RNA sequence: CCAGGGGUGGCGGAGUGGCCAAUCGCAAUAGACUGUAAAUCUAUCGGGCUUGCCCUACGGGGGUUCGAAUCCCUCCCCCUGGA
């Protein structure tokens, strides 16, 4: 089972640090999970996992299911054995997010947040030719009343190649029909055997209308009841988190937080879309954390930009997961104390990425010019080392955040990082 | 010396009379990435500005043509055979 103790909390703010314990181990919070979609980290050999500074990982039910990895996990005796990280805490996502990312999100080329720069670009050059070049732009139309302001086009139905009904989700896999629903997701997640499981939910998009977001949220609440019900038939070793939805709408977010927060679950995910800007994310999170029971952990699903982490911790979030450290590493982006750096711009330097960094790349003295040569040669070592580095960076970042909460210097830490991020 | 093939933008390599400042790939440059569709994607990539046009460009020179990277002549260079 799971227990959560808040070890540091200032009365005047929602910021808190704590310890999350499961039968497998414990982590201090706030903490960010490294995403191991297929139960392994991209561009890292599996036996490197146990050397990582990260204590928390998240594995994806949809991908391990569709790629037929779950039987291998079962054979290995569970996800901890399969990944060879017995003492670490592992979560599984329910597969609900893939309904969005492979369905609506893919069709409309949209993520969990609408990017600010696209909106700005759009304002000034709506009628220029650039318009047709980006599919995202078709979702914006001129506000005819103001002439210059923008009105977002919203979808009233899911407009989704994946069929979502009360029963669950239907999709095609290798040309054959397939179904995912709360009961199946619980079953799969039990087989995987992570410490924390997520309820089966639907992640809505910033392009969904209020009406659709509400309809979807209410369905997600019913799916939560079914997830809880299905979970009860299994052994109580795994902790099931309920997921708050409601998009960017305050009344929906508050309603969802009340309903999900009232359920007999040991923790919560906060999912879905968060509107257009970073301020919107922080505001949306604050509506939710104001209502959720404070003694239980909150995991902000899929968020991990550094500014977003600080602002969410500020609002009382304990757990995160994000692909940014690993994905951007493969995309040649380095995270450092001086900001994000494109390796491309540093490729002539015969020196390691960062002094005083404990990652293998920096300890072994791998130079940035060497990394660049490996990238050009498509040598996997390049992304292996950059991935190790970015993971170390995020592990250090989260440790600094925890220490700053305990030392009462959280806002100074935040200001330091806001100078570069 | 003879025969055959070839010389195209930083590199590789299309194009064989107009739609060619020249497909495409690489490199370069700038950017993106938030419960992984992603070791991916987007944009720029001869020069100038009043962004539509002008200039310079497909080895050098000359010619044919309204028009040439593309056809002809000539020179230079490279590759493959043969003396």
TrEMBL record:
GO BP term, example = tRNA wobble guanine modification
SUPFAM superfamilies given in the database record: tRNA-guanine transglycosylase (SSF51713)
- Which keywords annotate this record? Glycosyltransferase, Transferase, tRNA processing
Enumerate the InterPro entries for this protein. ArchSynthase1/Queuine_TRR (IPR050076), TGT (IPR004803), TGT-like_sf (IPR036511), tRNA_ribo_trans-like (IPR002616)
Q: Which GO terms describe its molecular function?
A: tRNA-guanosine(34) queuine transglycosylase activity
**Listed GO CC annotations:** cytoplasm
- Stretches assigned to the tRNA-guanine(15) transglycosylase-like domain: 14-124, 160-419
Which Pfam families would you find in this protein's record? TGT (PF01702)
Query: Where is the secretion signal located?
Result: none
Q: What is this protein called?
A: tRNA guanosine(34) transglycosylase Tgt
Q: Which organism is it from?
A: Candidatus Roizmanbacteria bacterium CG_4_10_14_0_2_um_filter_39_13
